[in-house]
Each structure stands twice: as structure tokens, then as C-alpha cells.
Amino acid sequence: PYVYIALGIFVSLLFYGLATLQKRWSLNTLSVLTLSLFMSGTFLAWWRLSQPDARWVSFALMLAFPLGAQIFFVIIGGLAGRLLDVRQMKRLFSRIVSGAAGGVICGGLLATPLLNQVNKPEHLLPFAGIGVAIALLLMLVSLGRFQGRLTQTKIKHEAQEVPSIWPLLKERFVTTTFLYQMFSAVGTQLVIYIFIAQAEVQYPDAQDLAIFFGNFAGMRNGANIIFLMFLAGPLLNRFGLRFGLAANPGGVAAMVLLLSLFAIVLGPTGSAFFWLIVVTYIIDNFLSDGITSASIKATYQTLPAHSRSVVETMVEGIGVPMAIGFSGVFILIFNAAAGVTLTHIILFTLAVTLIWLTLALLVYRDYPAMLIQAFKTRAVDWAGVAVVDSSSIAILEQNLTNPKAGVTLYALDGLADVAPDNLPTYLMRLLDHPQPEVRLEVLRRIETLGLTETIPVLQQRFKGEGSASVQGAMLRTMAILDEESLFDYIYPYLDDPDSHLQQGALVGLLRSGEFEGIAAAAVKLTASLNSSQPRERIFVAQVLAEGEVAGFYRPLLQLMQDEEPAVQRAALLAAGKLKQPKLWPTVVHCLGVPQLRATAVTALVSGGEAVVPYLDAAITQPGQDRQILIRLAQILGRIGGEQARYILQKQLDYPDEQVRTQILLALNQCGYQADSNVVTQIQDM
After folding, report:
1. What value does the mean pLDDT take over residues 242-265?
2. What is the secondary structure of 67-110 as a DSSP string?
């Protein structure tokens, strides 16, 4: 109980302490310092346990382990957040943290053979210290290798008003979610207490107890990984959020009810009773890691963005630690009260789990209404929703018929994330949507997914389509999806008086990859390229831009040198979409033409890091014009990345003040933080 009370205090202090320290120290420094303290503390504890009166060391170790694990995941999460983008985090972070589960398996299975050699459980601590030392070494290697990307620049942002937690707690959904997490923590801690207390009765010898915990930890984590990999996701997808919120309290309540009946009828003793407790603990552990955590994060997604982080922070930083502390207080009261037995504690745990289950149902009752409200404000990041619930899908499906294009496209994006298998069906339905921009987006997705089965439907709807731009997109999509059989159908539109139909047919034939279609499109484009009408030449640039075939770049070289600025601008925009390396020198040259400068900047930024070597050559060119240098610095700042930072760093001492100012601003935009050896130089500049 004292461990629980201390954890309730120290977890909150740790939560705020880390936030404060990160304002003063870099995450790199904090990472190394934390692991160093953990390593030295482990060896120190091993030495102190060999001295008399060392019970406080055991108590300190029971606190240090959960606190150390909490810090570890904060550090790993922070480093991953700086090294990985959102897509990489979703794909890779679970693999990264699975190393922790793998480590627990190895450590647990090693405990028995090591104990057979060292005889006393405390002599396992040096091996733990060696493990942390290896982790520290790997941390140092990683920090050294990725120092540039891990550097954090303090950039001033406009202060945003952060809502207080107390007004938010007046909302029923927030209150029930807060209480759900608190009772979840209390129920889990009581189960752990019962489990540890009975394990000590079952294995009175310290070495036997250590061997049991080692083997149990290894097997439990191995089974947990299997559950997380193969069962947790399918269960959530099959049964939805109601199951996700209620499974943990329901499963634990059922097991605790069985324990209560066993204790009342047969007494709280014996191997059968102990193994029932073990099963209860395992069920709670599995469901908590694989089901509850994902489900509660899904409920947070329904809150407004400015409130979501506040609620999550207060629940995890205040609510859960308070609940752990309350668990300790309850157990102290039980221990102090005369006549209270383990049976009474189990019955109290049953009451807690039943309240927890009731709160799960209350949270789910309000979830659909909150989801509808969040949908109206477009506050939900559907890609980040961990649980695909039937109510979520139903709300999204209902809004596919919304006459407003923005709402419909938002719903379509959500369904693409949460129900990708049904996306072709949704796209077919949306071909009848009243807004042309929705139908254009549908055609783009059909093209991307390669849905050849839609071709007969597109042919049928083509004549009745009221928008020329959508008809052009239909021609493009049909030509791309069907390389040969539709050539005769599409070919006549190459000479159609409507430019939308012409462009759709030309782009489709260029992207089809079919020789006859490409040849026919080339003839038409060549005639327009040599036309005396600027609009015809602009049309060529637009077709090549939409076609996005990097091999068809040569006409753009000619168009970027056209006598008409409007034609040149169209060609520059097309070059940005084609991303053909042979076009970049000409685009860079256009920075020197005032009327083309802004368009050239846009094109170069769209080229991304592939453009950087060409920018480097231009920025180091002797006698380069000031205005071009200013634009080059701005482009490098917008592109960002290590290459851009390196090029800008080389120009820190550029003599022209205006250029140097833009270089410093661009470095700041890139996330650059000066090393100690250049701080004085920058201050002098």
C-alpha cells in the first residue's frame, strides 16, 4: 500500500518534473542523464542490499521500476517524435516499443539460470545494471548519429489559450471518461496487490518467489505480444468500441466474481485459488494493453483539438496517479481494520470493477453524440482513430450524401482510413453526388486504385454528365484504366472544341502507356506547341503538368523561354509537378526574371530535397544577384532537411546584410540550432 501511495505522489511529480526539465535541458541530455542515474542506482542498490537494515532499498526499487519505465517511454516517445513523421510513427513506433516486451521476456527467462548461479535474488541487480549500461551505449550511438535531426529549436509561436480542466469536467462525457480511467487504475492496482500477496503465500522462499516472477514475466509478455499482434486488432474491429471499453472491466469483474465465490465457499487458500488469481491478473494485463488503451484514445478523438490534449494530460497526469494513491489508502484501511480478510478485499475489488463496467457503458452511451459534434467541426483525425466502431462508420456513411462538398470529402477521407475495404462501393455511390468537385475527387481515387470494374459505369454516365471538367476527368480515367480497347472511343475528343474534354483525353492517352495513344497525343501537342496563340501553348503546359510523365519534359524547356510571361509561368508550374531533374537549372535561372520569380520559387519548393543540389550550385555562384540569393535562401528554408541546413550554414558569414538575414531566417525555419562553436559567430553577425 505504501508503494501505491508513493507512486500516486511521485508519478504526478515526475510528470510535471519532466515537463519542467525539458524546458531547461535538451531531450538528448535528459535521456543520457536518466539512463545514467538508472544504471548507477541499480549498482548502488545491489551494494546497499548487502548491508544491514536495507528494507528501504527494496521499497525504493519497487518505486524506481515503474517510474523508470514511465521515464523510458517518455524519452523513447520524444526521440521517435523528432526522428519520425506521423506516418512513420504509426507504422514503426509499435515495433520500437516491442523491444521492451522482448527484453522482459529475455530477462524473465534468464532469471532462473542466473539465480541457480548467484543463489540470492539481489545478485540479479548487476545483470540489470549491465542491461541498462548497454541501453545507455545504444542511446549515445543514436544521439551521435542523429544529432542534427534530434536538435530542437525553440521557435516562438503565438500564445494559444489553453482551456482549464475544471470547466471541461462539467461536461458529462469528459467526467465519465475521467472516472473510467480512475476506476480502471484502482481495479488494476487491487488485482496486482491480491496477486502479489498470494504469490508471497504460495512461494514463501525468496529465491523460489524470484524464479516464479522471472518465468511468469517471460511467459506473460510472450503471450501478450501474441495477443497484441493477432487478436487485439481483430477483436476491436469485429466488436467495436463498446466491446473495447467494456471488455477489460467485464472480464476482470467476471473473474473476481468467480474468486469471490471460491473464497466464500472454499476459503481464499490453495493452489487452485492462486492460479485463478494469476488468470485474473493476466486477463487484466492483456485487455488493458491491447484493448482499453486503444479504446480510450478513440474516445479522446471526439473532443475538440484544443481540449483533447488537456483532458488526456489531466487524466494520465493527475487522475491515474490519484487512483493509484487511493488504492494504497484503501489497502492501508483494510490492513488496519480488525476482521478484514482477503475475501473482503476481493469483494471490494468486485464492487470497483462493476462501477468501472458501468462507467464504460456510460462513456459509450455518449460517444455517438460526441462523434457527430466532432464531425461537424471536423475535429477528428480519422487516420489516428485506433478503434473502428460501427457508430463511427454509420456517421461517416450518412454524410456521404451531404450536399456540401467539404463535408462529403471529409467523410470520404474518414472512410478511406477506417473502412478501406469498402472504399470502391462508396466511390461508385458518389459518382451521383451533386457537386462537381466531389465527382472529380472520386475519379482521382478510382484512377489511383485502378478500379477497372468502373469503366462500364463511367461510359454509361459520360453523356449525361453536366460538367465538362468532370467529363474530361472521366476520359482521362477511362484511358488510364483501359489501355487499348477505349482508344477509338477517346480519340475523337482530341479535337473537341471544349478544352476540358481535349485535356482529359490527352492526359489519359499520355499516361496510358499505350504506344498508339501516346503517338496521337504527341501529334496534337506538337501542333499546339508551335501555335501562334499563347493560350494553345499554355494548354500544352497544363496537359504536361497534369500528365506528370517525367519523360515528356522537353516541350517545357521551350515554353520556359517563351516570349509570353503567361506561357512561361504555366511551364514553370508544370516543371514543379513533373519534378524532372533536367528542368531544374532552367527553373533556377528564372529566379532572375522579376515577373517569373514568384512562380519559379513555387516550382522549386514543390521539387523538395531533389532540388537542393541545384540550389547549392546557384547560391555559391560568384557574383550572384542579391535578389536571387534571397530567394534561394527562402526556398532552402521552406524545403528544410539536413542538406539545406548544411548549405545555409556555409553561408552564415555572407557579407551582404539582407542576404545574411534571409539565411538566418531560413536556418531557423529548418529547425537549426547553433553548436557552441558558432554561437559567437552568429551573435557577431
Report:
1. 95
2. HHHHHHHHHHHHHHHHHS-HHHHHHHHHHHHHHHHHHHHHHHHH
- Distance from chain centroid for Cα 672: 24
Q: Are 637 and 648 in contact (CB under 8 A)?
A: yes
Q: Which of 2-16, 402-416, 595-609 has the lowest mean pLDDT?
A: 2-16
Quick one: pLDDT band at residue 155, thresholds 50, 70, 90? very low
Q: Which residue has the cell 547560391?
A: 619
Residue 243: CB partners within 8 Å, gap ≥ 6? 235, 236, 291
CB within 8 Å of 129: residues ≥ 6 apart? 39, 42, 43, 46
In the chain, the amino acid numbered 627 is Q
**Is the CB of residue 480 less than 8 Å from the CB of residue 512?**
yes
Q: What percent of the chain has pLDDT over 70?
A: 93
- CA–CA distances in Å: residue 232 to residues 190, 228, 238, 287: 24, 5, 10, 8
Percentage of the chain beyond pLDDT 90 is: 54
Please state the separation of Cα 610 from the chain's center in Å: 26
Inter-axis angle of helices 423-430 and 405-418, nearest 10: 160
pLDDT band at 154 (very low <50, low <70, confident <90, very high): very low
Long-range contacts of 428-437 (CB under 8 A, 24+ apart): 428/454, 428/457, 429/400, 430/400, 431/457, 431/458, 431/461, 433/405, 433/408, 434/403, 435/403, 435/404, 435/405, 435/408, 436/467, 436/469, 436/470, 437/405, 437/409
Q: For the whole model, what pTM was predicted?
A: 0.69
Q: What is the DSSP string of 377-388?
A: TT---GGG----
Question: Which stretches of 377-467 are DSSP H helices?
Answer: 390-398, 405-418, 423-430, 436-449, 455-462
How far apart CA 242 and CA 356 sit, in angstroms, is 13
Q: What is the pLDDT of residues 170-189, one digit of tens each?
A: 889 999 999 999 999 999 99
Report the pLDDT value the prediction gives residue 12, as an integer from 0 to 100: 77
Tell me the CA distances in angstroms from 684 to 426, 679, 681, one per residue in order.
Answer: 61, 9, 5
The H helix count followed by the E strand count for the chain is 34, 0
pLDDT tens per residue across span 280-311: 999 999 999 878 988 888 888 788 766 777 78
C-alpha cell at 375: 464531425
Tell me if 478 sits within 8 A of 489, measured CB to CB.
yes
Where do we find the cell 525555419? 669
**Interatomic CA distance for residues 415 and 428, integer angstroms:** 14
For residue 605, what are the CA distances in angstroms to 577, 602, 668?
A: 11, 5, 17
The arithmetic mean of pLDDT across residues 203-217, rounded, is 90
Is the model's pLDDT at 157 over the cut of 70? no
Cα distance between residue 256 and residue 345, in whole Å:
10
Alpha carbon distance 678, 673 (integer Å): 10
Q: Half-sphere exposure (CA, 13 Å, Cβ side) for 436?
A: 10
pLDDT digits (tens, 9 = 90+) for 512-551: 888 888 899 999 999 999 999 999 999 999 999 998 888 8
Q: Which DSSP letter does residue 319 get?
A: I
Would you place residue 160 in the very low, low, confident or very high pLDDT band (cuts 50, 70, 90)?
very low
- C-beta atoms surrounding 89 within 10 Å: 16
